[in-house]
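Escalated from tier 1: 6-O-phosphono-beta-D-fructofuranose holo job.
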Amino acid sequence: MKVGILTAGGDCPGLNAVIRAASRKLLNDGHEPVGLLRGFEGLADRDFMPLGRREVAGTIQLGGTILSTSSYNPFREPNGVEKVKSAVADEGFDAIIAIGGEHTMMMTRRLHEDEGIPTIGVPKTIDNDVTGTDFTFGFNTAVQTAVFAIDRLHTTAQSHNRVMILEVMGRNTGWIALFAAIAGGADGVLIPEVDLTVEELSESIKQRHAKGFNFSIIVVAEGAELAFASGEKRQVLATEATDQYGYPRLGGIGAALGEELERSTGFETRVTVLGHVQRGGTPTAYDRLLATEYGIKAAELAIAGEHGRMAALRGTQVVSVPLSDVTGVKTVDLHYLEIARTFFG
Ligand code: F6P
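Tier 2 regenerated the structure:
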């Protein structure tokens, strides 16, 4: 069997671990894995690389993707779908494993359902916002990076009696913010899923300081809105321009919140934006394991001829689910907010 493997959308730690695991499983069983460069663009333009033992060796610990990635969408490109279909037929691909986020999974499903292309999905993203799976790989690494940052902010916050704000990614969900807040021992968190006004947050910080704690760490998700007791709400954007998917380019809520909190609490405040640092670098051991399981499951699906499916984590098991299980954005489980709140104020 000849199986194409591609990575699409934004990168995240663990992509190479999936490529490596799927390739090794396919090779072990006598099949031929082929890397498709720059996502679906590499399939449409027939830009390939071999994925033999040598090519995937020593990649489990590498962040990014050895295949490069892009947001190429065959449904939006001139003759994109035709190019993809003829590449699959002419080159003799028996299956295409697409590793990507929500958009890639939707595209992968459509290519299977509407165009008959034998696709299989693997969900990735640091945001953990893909429905159909409990956790995506890449998320654990991003949270770990955010927690390292909080640990460092703690010592300097304490020394200067300051309020420290850490802005993290997550797009329109608060998964990274909430998990990092709990694991880092933060004193407040602002996420897109729940309205918390500047006045409420400021009151909670003042209460904490009145109890003799002279510093506070606040984690804010980039997609959270600045909300006020008056009912006014403001979404802060990095720029008016949208990204390649038409999403607003988020960023800047940390600085806006910092100004408001400094004014309302009277405490000196500093802001750190973690940015793409949380998307790069070495995957954690957990993400390497999860990515490896995903890769092997995807290869097994390819070998079994089970197309239109996605490898997914349900509880502690990596299982096969229909790509149609990916429907919209998975918002944060608010049970974790209850846990975080135990330590605020
Ligand atoms: O989806 C992953 C993510 O890192 C989001 O958390 C963030 O909002 C976005 O991508 C940033 O995208 P870009 O790399 O295009 O700036």
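The radius of gyration is 22 Å.
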